Amino acid sequence: MFNAILLEKTDAGFRAGLTALDPSRLPLGDVTIAVDYSTINYKDALALTNKSPVVRNWPMVPGIDGAGTIVQSSNTAWQVGDRVVHNGWGVGETHWGCLAEQARLSGDWLVRLPDTFSTRQAAAIGTAGYTAMLCVLALEDHGLLPGAGEVLVTGATGGVGSVAVALLARLGHKVVAATGKASEADYLTTLGAAGVIDRAELGSPGKPLQKERWAGVVDALGSHTLANALAQTRYGGVVAACGLAQGMDLPASVAPFILRNVTLAGVDSVMTPRAKRQRAWNRLAADLDPALLEGMIDEIPLGDAVFTRAAALMAGSFRGRTVVKIS
User: Fold this and answer.
1) What range defines the domain where residue 253 resides?
2) What is the tally of structural domains in the chain?
3) What is the CA radius of gyration of the chain?
4) What's the angle, vertex CA 66, arms to CA 287 and CA 40, rounded to 5?
5) Total-model pTM
6) Which of helix, strand or coil describes residue 322?
7) Domain identity same for 97 and 157
8) Residues ≥6 apart with Cβ < 8 Å to 158
9) Do 102 and 180 fall into the same domain?
10) Of 228, 250, 266, which residue sits at a domain end?
């Protein structure tokens, strides 16, 4: 038997809790992992609180992130004892996830964990940190260089934002962090932010073109925030969009694209090909300061604390990264 968070929906309603499960209930897959650590992302929080129809198949074990060691494999790419990390691929939505002591997955979904990282650190980075690295790569691939000008990071105290601030600052960029939590200015400065602005400056409707400021942007909010960031991006600048915390809409115009040659780069972390995932994880190993990562981490055990933390994340009252110690 192994322990897992199990979500169920029956005629009696939604039910969730820590449950002992028989391994025979694990879904199909060619690799079985002993999960050391998982985490709670926004999508996990939606599932755990039943706030949105994230789960497509019931019952479901949530947890889109997991880091651990392979204990069984019929996939020729992986051997027993290999250390791996998993992010995305619909796990926790259509396939049982990693908030469990065991996870059976497709080997094609896994990334080899760089030797630099422990499984705890890998879980702390998780989808949020890996997405932040994908955003940084998008900015670099479109020509952004250190010294080009200010780089804006929205949702800066969240998982994506925290890691993005730390990465960009360490790479030599002048980072401006946007947050609605004025009390977290010291936290953002510690991560490397050169300046902190109130997210309210970007969160309301604005003009199609505004004063040029940003050489690059990492945006996790969407809606008016993304529209204003685009309107303020300098000629030839690039904006990496990876989230929709404010909304799915984009109330903008084509003006920044056709008058200032601004690039809007979409960043998806769920279905990214493995080669690009490995590139991102290798760069994280090289460019993310482990000491700063540790400062983002709050560790909790697998159990009731998972639901408490999910509720806090949904309420916007938590910063950084939650690591769930599985066993």
Assistant:
1) 127-266
2) 2
3) 20
4) 90
5) 0.90
6) strand
7) no
8) 42, 128, 220, 245, 319
9) no
10) 266
Tell me the per-residue pLDDT of 184-222, one tens digit each, with 9 for 90 and over: 999 999 999 999 999 999 999 999 999 999 999 999 999
Kind of pairing, strands 233-241 and 263-266? parallel
The owner of tokens 């004892």 is 81
Q: What is d(CA 73, CA 69) in angstroms, rounded to the nearest whole number?
A: 11
Residue 10: per-residue pLDDT = 85
Q: Length of the chain, please?
A: 327
Amino acid at 7: L
Same structural domain, 171 and 84: no
pLDDT at 51: 83
C-alpha 76/C-alpha 91 separation (Å) is 22
CB atoms within 10 A of CB 6: 21
Give kind and range of the element (H or E) at residue 21. Answer: strand 13-21
Domain with residue 316: its CATH number is: 3.90.180.10
For 4-38, the pLDDT digits (tens) are: 999 999 888 899 999 999 999 999 999 999 999 99
| Token duo for residue 110 | 């896994």
- Whether the CB-CB separation of 65 and 126 falls below 8 Å is answered with yes
